[in-house]
Each structure stands twice: as structure tokens, then as C-alpha cells.
């Protein structure tokens, strides 16, 4: 955790964080261990108001942490952060997975491949480690992202640094679709612990009819399922409609607000939070 601007403690997370949680063997922690952790946390400056996000709502550690907070006179509340679409990988490999996808998606990818064939020579590169191709792939990703619909990165050096680190550690699956020597789509996937995380994706605007992004996603999906043999593929964050075509399941990531009722700052933060939630629900009821 770290001090929050304006007071309080917040998760050591940022714009790029898709999931936050404790490190180490938390499964072996007892209820008294969690209470001791809260006691130590209360000694930190700003501990009257603690906000952590995004969290796995179903995690056992979160329930244990909340229980310990309550025993130490903290009031807590969970709030929605974002939806998380994911796909458990069953037996049968990519062929089985692909057969279960909506026909509209499968036909879109097939049409995209035919249109690419007609448009010119095309290929897909998947870079997985430090190699001669890595820097060219990093430059291709930056070029595609810069010509996409997405807003500029708040920290321009972050993604190149992450890609190089992931390549060094063996996590990287950087896919680039090229047409006539020009990169049209790029995606950064990270594979670790039997799970493939779809971290960043973009395609060059103006070429939507080629379905380059979908063609590339299908290729990377086949790679992580048949080559890496992952047990889960995760879209990480966001409820974009297209994700339901690629993934069968959805869960939610939440935030946790904890307010120390032994301090006035805790009471004030809790009151603001409750009033804000009531105001949002009232507006929704009146406008809905």
C-alpha cells in the first residue's frame, strides 16, 4: 500500500493494474495473523481510510481480511470496478474451443483471412522471447497503437519496458499481423502459471473490413491453447461486447473501502461513500 493524495492508504496499483492482491503464502495465514496485519496497518500514517482495487471478489484472502478489519473496528464496503471475461480451456485443444464460438465470429475470421489473401501477402509473427525479431515487433506494436482508435499511453515507456521484461522472463506472446510489410494489428499477451492474459490489443484504423484484429486473436488463441497448453485465457478488464464472443464466462473485479471508526477521518470517508452511493442510485432510479 501507499499514501493516497489527500490522505488515506491505497493499493500499490495504477492505470495498468488488472488485479491487485497480497504476495506470499496468504493461504496459510490464520485469523489471528490477519488481525495482527490490521493492527500493524493501523500504525501507518493515513490508515484511517484504506482503499484497495481491483480485487478478486471470490478470493479467500479478501474475506479473511475483511473479517479481521471488522474485529478491529473498521467499517468496510465493496464496490464494482469492472467486468472480467475469461475462458477455461477444456480438453480438445483449439479445435474444440473454436467449434463452440458463435458462428458469426468464426465466419468473420474466415472472411478476414480470405480478404487478406486478396489484399496482398500477409503473415502473423508471434514473438515469445528475446531475439532479433523482438525490437522490430516492439516498433510494430507502437506503430499500430499510434494509428489505432486508442488514446495515447499515459506512460509511453511502460509498454516497451513490459514487453522486453516479459520476453526476458519467457511470458511474452507478442503477435503482429503484417500486410505487404506493414503492421496492421498487434496484441500483447502474457503467459504465466498456466494462464494467458490478453493485456493490450490494437489495429490500424481504416482496415476494419479485413478483420485483422480478429484474425490475429484467433492465431494467438490457437498458440496459447495448443502450444502453451494454458488452462485459462483472460481478457483482464472491461465489458466490451466483443469479449463475450471469445469468452464463455464473466466475473467481477471489485474495490474495498475500509474506514477506521476509531478516527473521525474514517467516519467522514464512510459517510461520503454511503451518501455518494445513495445519490447515484437515486439518479439512476429517476432517469431510468
Task: Characterise the protein shown here.
The protein has 288 residues and is an alpha+beta fold. It has two domains: 2-81 and 252-287, no CATH class; 90-230, Gcn5-related N-acetyltransferase (GNAT) (Aminopeptidase). It has helices spanning 31-42, 60-71, 93-99, 103-119, 134-146, 158-169, 212-227, 243-246, 264-287, and strands at residues 2-3, 9-10, 49-56, 74-88, 122-127, 172-179, 182-192, 195-203, 232-234, 249-260. Helix 1 packs across helix 2 (60-71) and helix 4 (103-119) packs across helix 7 (212-227). The longest helix is centred in the C-terminal third of the chain and has 24 residues, at 264-287. It is elongated, with a radius of gyration of 22 Å. It starts with a strand and ends with a helix. 31% of the residues are buried. The model has no long low-confidence stretch (mean pLDDT 95).
Would you summarize the structure shown here?
With 288 residues, the protein is of the alpha+beta class.
Amino acid at each position: 500500500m501507499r499514501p493516497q493524495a489527500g490522505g488515506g492508504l491505497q493499493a500499490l496499483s495504477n492505470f495498468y493494474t488488472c488485479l491487485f492482491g497480497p504476495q506470499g503464502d496468504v493461504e496459510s495465514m490464520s485469523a489471528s495473523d490477519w488481525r495482527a496485519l490490521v493492527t500493524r496497518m493501523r500504525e501507518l500514517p493515513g490508515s484511517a481510510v484504506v482503499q484497495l482495487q481491483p480485487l478478486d471478489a471470490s478470493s479467500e484472502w479478501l474475506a479473511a481480511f475483511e473479517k479481521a478489519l471488522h474485529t478491529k473496528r473498521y467499517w468496510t464496503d465493496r464496490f464494482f470496478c469492472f467486468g472480467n471475461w475469461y475462458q477455461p480451456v477444456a480438453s480438445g485443444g483449439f479445435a474444440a474451443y473454436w467449434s463452440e464460438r458463435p458462428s458469426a465470429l468464426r465466419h468473420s475470421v474466415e472472411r478476414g483471412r480470405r480478404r487478406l489473401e486478396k489484399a496482398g501477402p500477409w503473415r502473423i509473427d508471434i514473438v515469445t522471447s528475446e531475439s532479433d525479431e523482438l525490437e522490430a515487433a516492439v516498433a510494430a506494436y507502437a506503430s499500430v497503437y499510434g494509428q489505432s482508435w486508442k488514446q495515447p499511453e499515459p506512460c509511453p515507456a511502460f509498454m516497451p519496458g513490459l514487453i522486453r521484461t516479459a520476453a526476458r522472463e519467457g511470458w511474452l506472446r507478442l503477435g503482429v499481423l503484417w500486410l505487404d510489410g506493414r503492421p496492421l494489428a498487434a496484441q500483447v499477451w502474457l503467459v504465466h502459471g498456466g494462464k494467458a492474459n490478453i493485456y493490450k490489443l490494437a489495429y490500424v484504423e481504416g482496415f476494419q473490413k479485413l478483420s485483422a484484429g480478429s484474425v490475429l486473436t484467433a492465431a494467438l488463441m490457437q498458440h496459447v491453447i495448443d502450444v502453451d497448453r494454458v488452462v485459462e485465457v483472460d481478457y483482464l478488464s472491461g465489458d466490451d461486447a466483443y469479449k463475450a464472443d471469445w469468452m464463455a464466462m464473466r466475473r467481477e473485479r471489485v474495490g474495498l473501502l475500509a474506514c477506521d471508526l476509531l478516527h473521525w477521518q474514517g467516519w467522514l470517508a464512510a459517510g461520503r461513500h454511503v451518501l455518494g452511493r445513495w445519490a447515484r442510485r437515486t439518479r439512476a432510479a429517476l432517469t431510468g
